[in-house]
Amino acid sequence: MYEAFEHEATQSNKPSLLISAAVSAGKGTIETAYQIPEMSKYMDLINMMTYDLRGSWDGFTGEDSPLFAGPNDKGDYKYFNVDYAMNYWKNQGAPAEELMVGFGAYASTFTLTNPASHGLDASTSGPGTAGSYTQETGSLAYFEIMSQRVCSFLKGATEVWNAPQEVPYAHKGNQWIGYANPKSFTLKVRVSGCTFCGQGKYPFMHVLKSALSIFTPDLPPVLALPTSTVGSPTNTVAPGSGSAGESGFCAGKSNGLYPSPTSKCAFYNCVDGRTYEEACQTGLVFDTSCSCCNWT
Fold this sequence. Notes:
Keywords: Carbohydrate metabolism, Chitin degradation, Chitin-binding, Disulfide bond, Polysaccharide degradation. It catalyses: Random endo-hydrolysis of N-acetyl-beta-D-glucosaminide (1->4)-beta-linkages in chitin and chitodextrins. This protein is of the alpha+beta class and 296 residues long. It folds into three domains: 2-49 and 66-101, no CATH class; 106-180, Chitinase A, domain 3, CATH 3.10.50; 183-295, no CATH class. It contains seven helices and 15 strands. The chain has helices at 2-12, 27-33, 36-40, 82-91, 142-146, 182-192, 203-212; strands at residues 20-23, 45-48, 99-101, 106-112, 124-127, 139-141, 158-162, 167-172, 175-178, 243-245, 256-259, 266-271, 274-279, 284-287, 292-295. The longest helix is centred in the N-terminal third of the chain and has 11 residues, at 2-12. The radius of gyration is 20 Å and the shape is globular. 31% of the residues are buried. Mean pLDDT is 82; it is low at 194-203 and 214-246.
């Protein structure tokens, strides 16, 4: 295929078609299914399926796409997280520039054995109840979780931020869901450098656009991730991620992207009251119609 694509590009005088693959994020499957150094020679993009990492088949609650391992994870479960999968692929020979991290815009759902026991790793009796629209047990679409409709799961639910794994979960009655939200998407992008309902149109896509479309200078060497909570309040940010603060422009504002009053090429990314001042890539301006960087 690689040779055929190269030949076609030569004959047509056009860029070669890209070769990509969706690959497992599970250590056991990676070890037996892929010759990583060899396949990396021919791949343009390697899309890690860093979702569906936990589900009702486990018999206990767990996050669908945790950024890090949980404090009680044991055995192979400690490998089922985005950070481990990303680094395992890199350590086995996959170039970092080929790796794409997968983002799941849905929830894995569970039915609790005992509604009074509703934390992480709580016993479950099966998949969660099917959603009103998707009609499939064990999962909910994002609009079934967060919309302004009466049927939204989060209406009347208890929401919990799972700080060690940097993702949320929620429970209501005997139902428990592990899901993603704009905050967890932002944190995942900032850590990995990456593959909608009452929050504006396509909130997840806007988060990804804002985090990935900013101007970024050469990155410093990758450092080992700290064991402390990544999402705790801080005024220190990595180069290229924008300046951050817990007051100022974003104080009292809803999560989202806002144009800068001083530059058409800059914008503010508000996350839980913290202010991230960011800039579009050269030649682009912030477009309020899509909350994204766009051509002039």
